[in-house]
Amino acid sequence: xxxxxxxxxxxxxxxxxxxxxxxxxxxxxxxxxxxxxxxxxxxxxxxxxxxxxxxxxxxxxxxxxxxxxxxxxxxxxxxxxxxxxxxxxxxxxxxxxxxxxxxxxxxxxxxxxxxxxxxxxxxxxxxxxxxxxxxxxxxxxxxxxxxxxxxxxxxxxxxxxxxxxxxxxxxxxxxxxxxxxxxx
Length: 184
Prior knowledge:
Elements: E1 2-7, H1 11-15, H2 22-35, E2 40-45, E3 87-91, H3 102-108, E4 113-119, H4 121-134, E5 138-147, H5 151-161, E6 167-169, H6 179-183
Parallel strand pairs: 1-2, 1-4, 2-3, 4-5, 5-6
């Protein structure tokens, strides 16, 4: 069974990656998934109040260690807000698996194929793809439903790196099988 992962599409993150076409494309992927009966799982980075799980040695999050600003996840962007039945997973590092219960959620639902989307291509998408591949998940990346602040890095990842471990396609080309069709 497949699941669509919508990773780090939180208000504060989207604000740092200006692309007016991104959220509508991502919303299209979410609509396709829901129409096909594919679970949508939102991944959001977040920490406990004060960030006790953040090391000052962590270059990505270390500035938040001990900060009163460290806390629950920043809200998911309202244009792709979770619907009833969507799962929200809070992670503690770059990969969607690290410090989260994502693997438990996937295995409980017999999900063995992940469709990856999110911000940033060189961050959460890359880290999650590598870890998911090592955990033997089948993988699809929706290239235009991923976003990076460096277009060249995005291009190299989706054209050269990701195809070694995943099928790479676009939202318009993605044809999710319906759950009923898969079960038949």
